[in-house]
TrEMBL record:
It comes from the Eukaryota. One of its GO terms (cellular component) is mitochondrial large ribosomal subunit. It comes from Rhamnusium bicolor. This is Ribosomal protein L41. Residues 102-133 are annotated as: Disordered. Its main location: mitochondrion. The lineage of its organism: Eukaryota, Metazoa, Ecdysozoa, Arthropoda, Hexapoda. Keywords: Mitochondrion, Ribonucleoprotein, Ribosomal protein, Transit peptide. Residues 112-123 have a biased composition (Basic and acidic residues). Belongs to the mitochondrion-specific ribosomal protein mL41 family. One of its GO terms (molecular function) is structural constituent of ribosome. It is found in: Mitochondrion. GO terms for biological process: translation.
Amino acid sequence: MEKRNFRKFPIYNKRGTRIFKQQQRENPDPDVPIHKRGVRDIGYQEGDKYIVIPEKIPELILKPYVSYRTPDVIQSEFTAEDLFNVIYAPKVLKDFKEGKLDADGQPLEPSQEEKMTAEEAKIKARQTGSDIF
């Protein structure tokens, strides 16, 4: 029997008949490679088992596009003091000026955030939609 040159006429997955595809799955012919459409294997076949190599699994790292023409932004580290100044300081100053603080410095009319316990605040911070994730 003569050898056929299948490289001249590639039969990719879409081009072969159903019978051809079934034969390729059952008994692959090394002369007719199965076209993988540019997708690389993440492992290898060893007998009936497919061994996955974790290092070969692609890791997609998406980075936002930023133009090179944007000016450099130099920003200091956001500390706990900055957070306090932005969130709590205006309320504390307002209560102090209006005399709504008791002898210990606690507000007489606490807001919802001030009424929360430490456990409630922790649960709220870990809810879906918070910045922690």
